Amino acid sequence: MLVRDFAFPGRSPVFASECAVATSHALATTTALSILKEGGNAVDAAIAAAATLCVVEPHMTGLGGDCFAIIGEADGTLHGLNGSGRSAKGANLDWYLENGFCAFEETSPHAVTTPGSVKAWEAMHQKFGVLIL
H/E element holding 43? Predict the structure, then answer.
């Protein structure tokens, strides 16, 4: 496999027959194609590609993030998944209002949520995935 010089803009082509995968990194695309070749479906491939991107592009994505997906079935049915992080279990609106909070800066520790990507991958795989590794 030829890997491009990431110091320059461009695309990393990865070729396959009978399927298509597009990611921002050749290794993630190759991973997804491998999953499809092993009998996995599009959801299996998408999860594998996302996990690979967490390793090869940690500055762009990561396990500590969120996941949003729209999954289409062959009959045209669409399923939306909101894998955004949740607020802390003990968070209480009244406490914030009583302590003068009406908005949060992006860097505030009160703006942090629990990452939702891994749980979203699990939910997608349980409902739509076919490959068990």
Answer: helix 42-56
